[in-house]
Amino acid sequence: MTTHNTNAACCTIPPVISDYTPKGVFKSVGSFNKVYVTGPDTSTNAIVCVYDIFGFYPQTQQGADIVASTLKTKVYMPDFFEPDGPFPHDPFPPTTDEGKEALQNFFGTTANPQKNIAKLIEFGNHLKTNGAAKVGAYGFCWGGKVTVCAAGENTPFSSVSIIHPAMLSAEDSEKLTVPLAIYPSKDEPKEEFEKIVGILAKKSFADSCDNKYYSNMHHGWAAARGDLKNEENKKEFEDVYTKVVNFFKKTLA
């Protein structure tokens, strides 16, 4: 399993901007009333982005725009939290008992993983039924857990990627039936990441998997908590999206 791509024909992503205006539009797709949609109408394949607990953010939308424009593939980011809305970004992480309890309640209700895994699988099937030849999915934080758990038996997805994933578990990767690209930050358990890499190495699709441990990045650097005015964060944002793009270029071909 490789941690870098030596292919000279690797995709080059567009420049990353700190004050970004998303290029996509919101529309109703499948059972979702609100989906951020970006990329060409002519694309054969589709990719689903599962945002983090803060919902739609310019950083996450910029990432989706990068994936869509570089791969010339339509990217869909559904509003999994409708009609309730995302978790408040500030203050995070919660410091009061009340705030911590609110976060736990959020994970138990609006962001309940099992409920949202089912929604993601249903949406993937909807895209395939409506003409997508292959569908990929990637997710951040909470969305990483939802994404990896949607890639087991009978998954509609051809490949999945998880970036600074929450609730990281080697058990989830045992059940995978499609290639995985995994890109954790220093805040995720490295031991669990290494177990996952070991499990993937024994899979029949091991050569299609990818991984990199971002030891210099905080949880959230590639999504809502990314500080793109910070040069190092911006550089690693560019790095991980280049990896995601090349992973899907290979696995959705």
Automatic annotation (TrEMBL):
InterPro entries attached to this UniProt entry: AB_hydrolase_fold, Dienelactn_hydro
Name listed for the protein in its UniProt record: Alpha/Beta hydrolase protein
SUPFAM superfamilies per the UniProt record, alphabetical: alpha/beta-Hydrolases
Top-level taxon of the source organism: Eukaryota
Chain ranges of the Dienelactone hydrolase domain: 35-251
Keyword Hydrolase: yes
Organism phylogeny: Eukaryota, Fungi, Dikarya, Basidiomycota, Agaricomycotina
The keyword Hydrolase appears for this protein: yes
Any GO molecular function: hydrolase activity
